[in-house]
Structure formats: structure tokens, C-alpha cells
Amino acid sequence: MDGTGDGPVAASLKTKPANLTMVAKNNGGVFPTKEVYNTITGDTVVASHGTREMPIWGTVFRTGNIAPGQRPRGPEAIKRMVDPLVAYIESIQVK
Length: 95
What we know:
Blueprint: H1 33-41, H2 58-63, H3 75-91
């Protein structure tokens, strides 16, 4: 819940979730905005995550569609959904 990877289902996962509060610290103190954005949208594949498919959100973050059967809404719709997530992750970085 706090971005540290210790949420309610963390113990049941095969791979421990990343501690999202340490992204900048693990990148020399600089928050990698574009890399985080690309990871969320699936443009950057993270080996420990397996395939690019996120069971619930993968299609939404690739097409901008929030309902099945919608026509793709384009890059602006995707950006409007992903930018707040990136900003939140940046806001929880340890100092």
C-alpha cells in the first residue's frame, strides 16, 4: 500500500514486488521518469515481471481503452492515465 512491496498479497507472490520508494536511490539519486513510464506501459520489459502482459491493466495502458470493445484512444489518453502514476511513484521516493 505504501509502495515498499509489502502489500497484502506480497507473501503469496513468487517474486517479491519491487520497493517503488527506492527507484531514484537505485538510479544514482535521479528519478528515471521515462523509464518508469515505459515500464508501466509495457514498452520496457522487466525480466522479473515475466511477459509484458499485465492481466488487468496491460491493454488499458497500451490502448487507452477503459472498457472492452472500445476503439483505441491513442497516445494522449494513455499519457493522461500513466502520468499520474509516474508522478505518484516519484512522490514516494525516499530522500
